Every structure is written in structure tokens, then in C-alpha cells.
């Protein structure tokens, strides 16, 4: 409190008392504002995490949409939906700023309404363990499957889209089987996961049309990013049934401008392309390498540029009522917040039964969705 001490010592000159009091108050307010702005932008502007502040990040725990797919008719193809999801889903306790991409666990993410998950596994002692690069998340593929099965048992109207990626080479020296064989053990020969896998894994052979929501309810649809001899098990990652935006290497915060251009182009393409169920649209809002994932999402601590979650959230809100913008596709996020999740989900409203019956009544126009 140096300003108050200074003020007291000046008070000895009585005739100057009033101007001194005023300037003391001014100094006090200036110091207080400086402290608030430098130490706690969160107190002034809202949602904050580790000092990073962003209106569209971090508070996914305040979003609550455990059954949003229940309002959408069975015949809608999965490719016609607007789906929020997470990148490097399981990194919420990884303990390294460079590798952490999330701040809530899987069950919280599911409850918030997120339905796409990025699951990166490495083969370690014949088991699949969840990594981000060389960083171990502390979680196993069993943890992931059990969490997803529990959610789908409790909310059978819902669908989960799981990217399953082989994250680098096997680890350890006691591996005797392949990544694919290990994956199949969880499906066919594991006391903890096999029953749930029978109920909930949807095996897609890539020749049938991309599935509808009705076919996928209570199921996990796999986007397969690992080699197989006896598959396939799901849609091929980066195959011709997906349109993917994945500009993720951003050398510094000033190149986030290029990242935003890539995101906006991807969202515009998904929003305006025909609904012919030929491809799944996916856009990564996340980025890293020259920037921390949290800086890319929420903007840097010094707030010199906007974070990608804020840019994306504003775009999604600005275009949500535009007639010709019909879907966002899958939007893949680091550190998502309530406002961003809510905004993406609102794009599905024209597809929802109850909305269709009452306020919107544009069923004639709905044919453009499928
Ligand atoms: C996930 O996080 C929430 C909130 O912190 C907690 O209540 C819940 O028990 C966690 N779930 C699991 C499976 O750890
Ligand atoms: C793929 O699945 C579809 C529908 O389930 C089926 O009709 C088709 O015969 C399958 N194709 C192959 C090559 O297994
Ligand atoms: C703001 O922070 C970023 C990332 O921490 C840094 O690269 C940049 O130089 C900083 N800008 C200013 C003007 O301090």
C-alpha cells in the first residue's frame, strides 16, 4: 500500500489537504485499476484459466447438453450435423503447458455436449495407453472406452465420433502384438471392455453410405488412423470421405492470422456445401508448435492478438441465422467454453423436431439437409 503511506506523510501540510486527498484518491484508483488489469483480467472480463482470458474458452463445465442429439430425427446423416469436439481430448492433467489442450475430463466434455474426441494411443506392453507425442496422459484406452460406454448407456440417443490415432511408435520392449491386434483385444477378449464394445462400437466398412444418426445412436463411430490387416474399423482418417482442415504448425502468435483464414475457409465450405452425405467436414481450431495450445485457443497473456476460440465463436454466432449457412461440420477445439459449444449446437436447431413443429416451420427447406 505505498500510495496510502505517501498520502499520510503529505497530509502534514494542512492547507494543501484537499488537493492532496483528491490526488491520493486518483493515485489509489489508478493503482487499483493497474493491479486489476495486470493481475486479474479475469475479474474484469470473465472466463479465465491460468491467467488466460477468453469469452469462448475454458468454462465447458457450464454447458450442459447431455442429450442434444435426441431432438434430431433418425434419418439425418451424421455429415449434416454441427458437432463440437475436442483435440487431444485426454490431456487435461498432463502437467505440461506445451502438451495440455483441455481443462475438463472426458465425462465433463460429454456432458457439455461435445461429441467428437481425439484419442491418441501408443502400444505399450501390448496395451493401448493415451499419449500426446511422448507425453503420457496417465490414462489408458480402457479408461476412455469405459467413460464412453457409461455415457452412452446413460444417454442412448447420443453418438460419439472417435478419432483413434496410432501416436508414434510402440513404447517399451515387451510388445508382442500389433496396434491393431491390441485394439481387437479390447473389442473381443477383455473382461472390462468387450461387453461394452459389442454394444457400442460401430464398425464401418467404408463402402456403405456414411451412416445416419439413427444408425449411430448409442454407438461410437471410429475415424481410423492406424494400419490394419483385418479391418477396416471405421472411416479412413484423411481419406476421400473427409474434408479436413489441419493447419496446426503455427510459428508464432502473429501467424495465428493464417490459422484463422484456414478455419474460416473450412467453416464456410462446410456451411455452404451441398448436403449429399459424401464427406464429413472437420476443422481444427487448435494449433501449436510455435505457440502454446492455450495461446492459440484463448490468445496470449499480453492480449496482443485474439485467440482462435474467440474468432471462431464470433463467426459461429454471426452466421447462425443465415439461411444459406447450414452446418459447421465437426469443429475441433482446445479449451472450449460454454458460449462456443452452445453456439455450434444452435446450428442444429432447424433439424430438431420440436423447433420444426413450432417456431421455424420451414420443413420444406429442410430437404437441403439430407
Ligand atoms: C470429471 O470431473 C468432474 C468435475 O471435476 C468430477 O466431478 C468427475 O468425478 C470427474 N469424472 C471422472 C470420471 O473422473
Ligand atoms: C459394407 O456394409 C454394407 C452395409 O452394412 C453392406 O451392404 C456391404 O455389403 C458391406 N461391404 C463389404 C465389402 O463388406
Ligand atoms: C506477447 O506475447 C507473445 C507470446 O507470449 C510474444 O510472442 C509477443 O512478442 C508479445 N508481444 C508483445 C508486444 O509483448
From TrEMBL:
<dbReference type="InterPro" id="IPR000909">
    <property type="entry name" value="PLipase_C_PInositol-sp_X_dom"/>
</dbReference>
<feature type="transmembrane region" description="Helical">
    <location>
        <begin position="18"/>
        <end position="37"/>
    </location>
</feature>
<dbReference type="GO" id="GO:0008081">
    <property type="term" value="F:phosphoric diester hydrolase activity"/>
</dbReference>
<feature type="domain" description="Phosphatidylinositol-specific phospholipase C X">
    <location>
        <begin position="74"/>
        <end position="225"/>
    </location>
</feature>
<keyword id="KW-0472">Membrane</keyword>
<dbReference type="InterPro" id="IPR051057">
    <property type="entry name" value="PI-PLC_domain"/>
</dbReference>
<protein>
    <recommendedName>
        <fullName>Phosphatidylinositol-specific phospholipase C X domain-containing protein</fullName>
    </recommendedName>
</protein>
<keyword id="KW-0812">Transmembrane</keyword>
<dbReference type="InterPro" id="IPR017946">
    <property type="entry name" value="PLC-like_Pdiesterase_TIM-brl"/>
</dbReference>
<keyword id="KW-1133">Transmembrane helix</keyword>
<dbReference type="Pfam" id="PF00388">
    <property type="entry name" value="PI-PLC-X"/>
</dbReference>
<dbReference type="GO" id="GO:0006629">
    <property type="term" value="P:lipid metabolic process"/>
</dbReference>
Amino acid at each position: 500500500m505505498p500510495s496510502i503511506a505517501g498520502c499520510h506523510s503529505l497530509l502534514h501540510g494542512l492547507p494543501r489537504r484537499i488537493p492532496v486527498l483528491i490526488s491520493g484518491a486518483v493515485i489509489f484508483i489508478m493503482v487499483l485499476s493497474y493491479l486489476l488489469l495486470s493481475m486479474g483480467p479475469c475479474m474484469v472480463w470473465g472466463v479465465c484459466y491460468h491467467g488466460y482470458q477468453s469469452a469462448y474458452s475454458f468454462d465447458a463445465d457450464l454447458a450442459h447438453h447431455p442429450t442434444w442429439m435426441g431432438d434430431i430425427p433418425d434419418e439425418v446423416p451424421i455429415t449434416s450435423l454441427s458437432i463440437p469436439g475436442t483435440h487431444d481430448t485426454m490431456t487435461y492433467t498432463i502437467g505440461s503447458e506445451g502438451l495440455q489442450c483441455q481443462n475438463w475430463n472426458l465425462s465433463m466434455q460429454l456432458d457439455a455436449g461435445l461429441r467428437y474426441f481425439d484419442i491418441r494411443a501408443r502400444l505399450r506392453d501390448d496395451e493401448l495407453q493415451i499419449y500426446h507425442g511422448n507425453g503420457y496422459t496417465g490414462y489408458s484406452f480402457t479408461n476412455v472406452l469405459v467413460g464412453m460406454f457409461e455415457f452412452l448407456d446413460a444417454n442412448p440417443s447420443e453418438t460419439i465420433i472417435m478419432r483413434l490415432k496410432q501416436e508414434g511408435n510402440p513404447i517399451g520392449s515387451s510388445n508382442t502384438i500389433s496396434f491393431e491386434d491390441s485394439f481387437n483385444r479390447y473389442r473381443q477378449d477383455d473382461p472390462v471392455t468387450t461387453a461394452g464394445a459389442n454394444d457400442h462400437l460401430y464398425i464401418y466398412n467404408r463402402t456403405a453410405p456414411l451412416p445416419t444418426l439413427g444408425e449411430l445412436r448409442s454407438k461410437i463411430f471410429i475415424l481410423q488412423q492406424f494400419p490394419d490387416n483385418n479391418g477396416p474399423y471405421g472411416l479412413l482418417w484423411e481419406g476421400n470421405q473427409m474434408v479436413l482442415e489441419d493447419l496446426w504448425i503455427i510459428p508464432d502468435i502473429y501467424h495465428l492470422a493464417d490459422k484463422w483464414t484456414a478455419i474460416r475457409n473450412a467453416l464456410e465450405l462446410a456451411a455452404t456445401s451441398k448436403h449429399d452425405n459424401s464427406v464429413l467436414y472437420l476443422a481444427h481450431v487448435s494449433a501449436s508448435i510455435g505457440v502454446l495450445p492455450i495461446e492459440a485457443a484463448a490468445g496470449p497473456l499480453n492480449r496482443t492478438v485474439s485467440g482462435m476460440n474467440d474468432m471462431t465463436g464470433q463467426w459461429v454466432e454471426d452466421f447462425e441465422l443465415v439461411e444459406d449457412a447450414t452446418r459447421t461440420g465437426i469443429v475441433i477445439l482446445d479449451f472450449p467454453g460454454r458460449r462456443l459449444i452452445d453456439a455450434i449446437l444452435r446450428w442444429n436447431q432447424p433439424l430438431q423436431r420440436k423447433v420444426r413443429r413450432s417456431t421455424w416451420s420451414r420443413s420444406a427447406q429442410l430437404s437441403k439437409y439430407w
